[in-house]
Amino acid sequence: MTTIYYVEDDRDIAENVKTYLQIRQMEVHLFYSIADAKQALLRKCPDLLLLDRNMPDGNGDELCKWIRRLWGNQLPILYLTVRGETADIVQGFQDGADDYVVKPFELEVLYSRILALLRRSGQTKETRLFCDHLSLDTDKMSVFWEQEEILLSQPEYQLLLLLMKNKGKTVTRRQLLEQVWDSNGNYVNDNTLTVTMKRLREKLHNPTCLKTIRSFGYRLEESI
To answer: What whole-number distance in Å separates Cα of residue 81 and Cα of residue 178?
Structure first.
């Protein structure tokens, strides 16, 4: 599991980010001061650091330089700053930050930047797909609703996988029938899809992110 340290003095923002990333199977430790973050970093190097520049007891730029002296370039640092602080962003990069996100930010944008940094540092490969509280691991062929593992039949899993891979797009009923069943040589009627989808919804606790597009098909899209 990816371990993230998040240095942030706004507790509401910190808790929202933590909840979002935990759903995506990441372990998040919050620090509301630079002093507390330093104590933790002296004990262990996480996989990634989220760093707000303006902290009550110091400046993010100074913490960046301190981290680089302690851990070198081993620790990816994602800088969080407010709009208009262009000079501060430049300073952050000079002091060792690897990337930045401007506040206010969309949680999905922050998550994509985190994954990009982890890929660059060689610490992850994208085997997980997400939508709201749902996650699917393509390597383990496992599905989770928050922290609960959901056991699916093969057609249910393949159906969810196809929708996950096309998140944000409507997948037609015909496409689902052809790719989930006909590709395996199993020719079924349209009612099979309806029944399988019904069972899938029930097992997934009827998620709001799974939409029925009447007369066309289905679509998965973020709703939180």
So the answer is: 47
Determine how many CB atoms are found less than 10 A away from the CB of residue 96. Answer: 20
Judge if 9 and 70 occupy the same domain. Answer: yes
Kindly state whether residues 106 and 136 are assigned to the same domain: no
Pairing type for strands 148-150 and 171-172 reads unpaired
Q: Partners of 7 in the beta sheet?
A: 31, 51
Single-letter code of the amino acid located at 66: W
Which parts of the chain register pLDDT below 50? none
Q: How far apart are CA 13 and CA 11, in angstroms?
A: 6
Dihedral-angle region of residue 211 (phi above 0 means left; psi in -120 to 50 means alpha; beta otherwise):
beta
Domain holding 15, by residue range, is 2-120
Model pLDDT for residues 42-64, shown as the tens digit of each residue: 888 899 999 998 899 988 888 98
pLDDT tens track for 20-36: 999 888 999 999 999 99
Helix (H, G, I), strand (E, B) or coil at 49: strand
Question: Whole-structure pTM over 0.85, yes or no?
Answer: no
Q: Which of 82, 104, 120 is the last residue of a domain?
A: 120
Task: List Cα–Cα distances, 123 to 45, 49, 83, 120, in angstroms.
Answer: 13, 13, 30, 8
